[in-house]
Amino acid sequence: MGELSKRIEEKAGAVRAALEAAVHAHRQVVYANSLGAEAMVLTDIIWSHVPQIQIFSIDTGRLPQETYDLMEKLQWRYRRPLRLVHPEAAALARLTATHGVNGFYHSLEARLECCQVRKIEPFRRAIAGFSAWVTGVRREQSDTRARAEPLEWDTQHGLYKVSPLLEWSESEVWQYIRGRGLPYNVLHDRQFPSIGCAPCTRAIQPGESRRAGRWWWEQSESRECGLHPRVREAIGA
Ligand code: SF4
To answer: Counting C-beta atoms within 10 Å of the first and last residue's C-beta, which end of the chain has fewer, N or C?
Structure first.
């Protein structure tokens, strides 16, 4: 394990302060843990310093084994259970009866329906009743995220959205992970910058965009799952 530079320590301190302020202002705060690299930073700060913030992850039922392994590592490290939110059983049964277990490869309609049942509905259910939710989005990830604010009203979901990592670079995220010796998804070491469900994620080639490995068989304009882009990134969709 390395050490954190003074700069990273200061940035981590600012994240902690932003999260504490969010709890003070909004009381019921929840973190949708995507289990990506940024999520390791936020999980560490929340579970170490701001445990009033509740954490959940969505288990779509189709995640890579490496992601389940990461869940185990997190639970061991922090000695806390990670709350998992699952798709609704009846909706899942209807989905597979209609489209088959791998229907997402056969039509865009089936793919969007799968994302709706396995990700979007569980996400909405998990944030219901909270006053604010935390995301790990960073400005440099896209033009949309470059215009984000640290605290915004999320009109789509009707609660505040707190984004304390906006000013972090990817390098700083990894400096924090390495410096603190945090667990992370080992797929990141195999050219998977963005990790979602196993059947819908592949490694990227040099020069490809970080989301090129998601739903790679579709036209690029359809590669979304019905969530706002910032929400998508935040929950690993
Ligand atoms: S990413 Fe693929 S498997 Fe996961 S919910 Fe969407 S379509 Fe279904």
So the answer is: N
The domain of 77 spans 6-235
0.85 exceeded by pTM: yes
Q: What is the pLDDT of residue 231?
A: 57
CATH number of the domain that residue 204 is part of: 3.40.50.620
115 labelled catalytic? no
Mutate to test the pocket of ligand 1, among 34, 62, 96, 116 (most ligand atoms within 8 A of CB): 62
The structure tokens listed for 198 are 């196993």
Whether 216 is in a domain gets the answer yes
Quote the number of domains for the chain.
Answer: 1
- Which strands sit side by side in the sheet containing 159-162, from one edge to the other? 83-85, 54-58, 29-32, 132-134, 159-162, 151-154
Minimum CA distance residue for ligand 1 atom 8: 114
Work out which ligand 1 atom sits closest to the CA atom of 237: 1
Q: Which residue has the tokens 């909706």?
A: 91
Q: Is residue 1 part of a domain?
A: no
Query: Using CA atoms, how far apart are residues 70 and 192, in angstroms rounded to an integer?
Result: 15
